[in-house]
Design goal:
The chain has about 90 residues and is an all-beta fold. The protein has a single domain, classed as 3-layer Sandwich (Rieske Iron-sulfur Protein), CATH 2.102.10.10. The protein is about 0% helix and about 40% strand. It has no helices and eight strands. A four-stranded antiparallel β-sheet has the order 1-2-3-8, with no helix packed on it. Strand 2 (about 30-35) and strand 3 (about 40-45) form a beta hairpin. The protein is globular and about 30 Å long.
């Protein structure tokens, strides 16, 4: 039985740990990713290169843009690389 995630538009079971999926709501895209501590939804585009974060890598608690190599961690930026304006929300 799949666990439906409220607001994400997909089942939580569809996103394996350390994986990411794009979710479109109207004209806005979101990256929904699964870390060891839970699920997060982040604006879908990196602010540096306008690259899709759903094409990025989830490593442990961080998601990394494959173009700018910027990293975010859970609800806040990881601060390990360049600054950004992307926020994330845990589900």
């Amino acid at each position: 039985m799949k666990t439906q995630s409220p607001g994400f538009g997909c089942a939580m079971d569809d996103i394996e740990e350390e994986d990411v999926m794009q979710f479109d709501l109207g004209v806005k895209a979101y990256a929904v990713y699964h870390t060891p501590s839970g699920y997060y939804a982040t604006e879908g585009l990196c602010t540096h290169e306008q690259a899709a974060l759903s094409d990025g890598l989830v490593m442990g608690e961080q998601i990394e843009c494959q173009i700018s190599y910027s990293k975010w961690q859970g609800q806040a930026r990881a601060g390990k690389t360049r600054p950004s304006d992307i926020s994330s929300k845990k589900r």
